[in-house]
């Protein structure tokens, strides 16, 4: 055989290997539990990223129910990290939700969400990074991720997705997320902007970003839990004053200045046992212990192993709490008929878990404030919103880091309304950043106040005042 022929064969073999996981996207017209065809456009698919596309990223793309050709695209990343995008779709801002059922053996029904954000924008929900939802890795090396590697991967994912969807390249593009994405999303935005500036194609038509209940700075977020608890009447004036006196505003155990401070912080933590930190007005339910982004990975893994059991949760009475819907989703998402309808590759992930805390992940960004500083200087729009009864990421801390950017106020603190009722309070700064509280909401806000959050998003994305 001639040398040139051998070379051609070898080249074709290598090319086939590299393209063995080429971009695959398919329409979803029916879903188990929903009566009839879906009344909106849904596409799912995989895009390979990282070395030799060892990471296969799964996505759900919902076209806008308004005007998909011209409406903005919102790339939405669920927090955790390593929580599935389906959590945001079913419980926060997507066009469908699950009805409650009395038994975990009953296939739940899907119904339309009246206050979906897809009524205003195209939304690209992504199971990200690998290990989240249906996204997976094909090698042991790719099973390890972290904040910086994730930034490279999501940048690659988005550009490949747009190459595969050229009709959306010119649409205004926003990045959005909540909870832990407060650490990573500003980093992603800065890196995407940097690659735009060096001419990486296709250029991303970046316009701004949205963050809900965003973890931003580990020290600030933690230190403002004590003032919030005091303001809500969860600790006494005297105890608050003694904490201030002995700890000088530093309420993390690792920063305890002395033994007395350490003891008072432990007493504070013990005193809040039984308070639902995701939403202080609701009854305590330990399923939410998985939502606390600050839990060390080893402890969080132990919690996940016990709490992720449906039968364990049923035995401890979790079905009587607000978050029982998480269990229903786990049952529904692991049905073979559901995965087939979503075009999930068989044998790639094992069991679907809403938040996969057992995956190897490095928490590398301790503060995203420097990234906000850079994006503010570049003049990008941003919406930062907080449920005002969230103790995981207190809105007081969010206000504090926003103030630290040192931009003047152009629209001072005022109430904003939905249907004539106060939905929260808002303030806008000269760097085009809008901050808003959602009255009576927790972590994350759209789960508790879907109508108010949908109205907030619609006004902001259209450039209107809240």
Automatic annotation (TrEMBL):
UniProt entry tagged with the keyword Hydrolase: no
Signal peptide: 1-22
Alphabetical list of Pfam families matching this protein: Peptidase_S10 (PF00450)
Protein name: Serine carboxypeptidase-like 13
Top-rank taxon: Eukaryota
GO molecular function: acyltransferase activity, transferring groups other than amino-acyl groups; serine-type carboxypeptidase activity
Gene: LOC110778942
SUPFAM superfamilies with a match to the protein in the record: alpha/beta-Hydrolases
InterPro entries per record: AB_hydrolase_fold, Peptidase_S10
PANTHER family: SERINE CARBOXYPEPTIDASE-LIKE 19, SERINE PROTEASE FAMILY S10 SERINE CARBOXYPEPTIDASE
Keywords for the protein's UniProt record, in alphabetical order: Signal
Family: Belongs to the peptidase S10 family.
Example GO biological process: secondary metabolic process
């Amino acid at each position: 055989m001639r040398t040139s022929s051998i070379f051609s064969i070898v080249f074709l073999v290598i090319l086939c290997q590299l393209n063995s996981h080429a971009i695959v996207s398919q329409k979803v017209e029916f879903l188990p539990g929903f009566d009839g065809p879906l009344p909106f456009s849904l596409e799912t698919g995989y895009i390979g990223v990282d070395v030799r596309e060892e990471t296969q990223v799964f996505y759900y793309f919902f076209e806008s129910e308004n005007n998909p050709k011209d409406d903005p695209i919102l790339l939405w990343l669920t927090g955790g990290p390593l929580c599935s995008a389906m959590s945001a779709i079913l419980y926060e801002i997507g066009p469908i939700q699950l009805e409650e059922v009395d038994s975990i053996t009953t296939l739940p029904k899907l119904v339309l969400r009246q206050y979906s954000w897809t009524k205003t924008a195209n939304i690209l929900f992504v199971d990200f990074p690998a290990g989240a939802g249906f996204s997976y890795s094909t090698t042991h090396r790719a099973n390890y991720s972290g904040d910086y590697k994730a930034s490279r991967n999501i940048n690659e994912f988005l550009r490949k997705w747009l190459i595969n969807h050229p009709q959306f390249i010119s649409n205004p593009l926003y990045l959005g997320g909540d909870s832990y994405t407060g650490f990573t999303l500003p980093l992603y935005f800065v890196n995407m902007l940097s690659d735009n500036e060096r001419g990486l194609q296709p250029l991303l038509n970046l316009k701004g970003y949205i963050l809900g209940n965003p973890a931003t700075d580990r020290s600030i977020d933690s230190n403002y839990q004590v003032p919030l608890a005091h303001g809500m009447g969860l600790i006494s004036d005297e105890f608050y004053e003694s904490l201030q006196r002995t700890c000088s505003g530093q309420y993390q155990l690792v920063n305890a200045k002395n033994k007395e401070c350490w003891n008072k912080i432990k007493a504070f933590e013990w005193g809040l046992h039984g308070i639902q930190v995701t939403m202080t007005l609701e009854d305590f339910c330990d399923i939410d212990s998985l939502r606390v982004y600050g839990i060390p990975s080893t402890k969080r893994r132990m919690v996940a192993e016990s709490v992720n059991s449906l039968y364990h949760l049923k035995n401890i009475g979790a079905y009587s709490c607000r978050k029982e819907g998480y269990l229903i989703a786990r049952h529904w998402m692991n049905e073979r008929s559901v995965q087939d309808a979503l075009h999930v590759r068989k044998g790639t992930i094992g069991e679907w878990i809403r938040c996969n805390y057992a995956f190897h992940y490095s928490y590398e960004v301790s503060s995203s404030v420097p990234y906000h500083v850079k994006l503010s200087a570049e003049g990008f729009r941003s919406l930062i919103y907080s449920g005002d009864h969230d103790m995981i990421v207190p809105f007081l801390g969010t206000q504090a880091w926003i103030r630290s950017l040192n931009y003047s106020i152009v629209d001072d603190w005022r109430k904003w309304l939905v249907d004539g009722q106060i939905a929260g309070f808002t303030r806008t700064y000269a760097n085009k950043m809008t901050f808003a509280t959602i009255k009576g909401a927790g972590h994350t806000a759209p789960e508790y106040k879907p109508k108010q959050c949908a109205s907030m998003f619609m006004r902001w994305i259209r450039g209107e005042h809240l």
